[in-house]
Specification:
The chain is mainly alpha-helical. It has a domain at 147-265. Helix content is 68%, strand content 0%. Helix 4 (76-95) packs antiparallel against helix 5 (101-121) and helix 10 packs across helix 11. The chain is globular and about 55 Å long.
Amino acid sequence: MDPLLVAGCAAGGLLVGDALEPLADRASKAPLERPWWQCPSCHAPDTGLGRVPVLRTVRRFAGCTSCHQPRPHPARPAVQAALTAVVVAGLAVRLGPDVVLAPYAVVGIALVAVSVIDVEKRIVPNRIVYPAAALGALLFVVAAASSHRWTSLWHAAACAAIGFAGLFAVHFVYPKGMGFGDVRLAGLVGGAAGWMGFRAAFLAFFLMFLLGSIGGILQAVLTGGGRRTAIGFAPYMALGTLIVVIFTTPVFHLLHPLLYGPGSS
């Protein structure tokens, strides 16, 4: 592990996670107009401490300086920035100074932002998924070309297509149970997990559906909503993918008896 690389990735993740806050704040509004950081009530731009990256979270707790209205979800920027830093640092620990760290960092940052938005607003915004997929795909091609890992790139492309097609089938059969935003996201996570092989991609999708089922049951019980309780599936897709990518070997050893039966090798 390269401590300097990990620290740099954590710092970069913190800043990028904070910079993506306007997308979480106005995810359902198009177009996303300037000023990026503004009061949702009076649309006055942030001033003073509200313009300082990361520290702007402190200012949100005090409310708007113009209309004095409290800001909704004042802790969200800090949570999003911290999660992004942890994810990018974890990827740096797992991958080290490998060129493939760049596309994985792009995917990880996008998954955190999408998860935060889906938890709050039940949408998976195209303005995050499409750019992340395009930039991630380009960087995976660069990684494959620079290190001659064309087999990994083929696995990533195949798993992206399979993931998209699989969740599209679920959406087609039961559109109320699987939004099309999740279908688009399946291509992104399928490609990210698929770079590490078909087995890793299979484990990622298995884990995201397992976690989603457990989370849905818990949410239904806690809210009393029963079977019709709506859940945001994107956080489970992100969590399943990142767990497998960062902890590929231990996850496989843990789930191997469950998938293939005890005593199998």
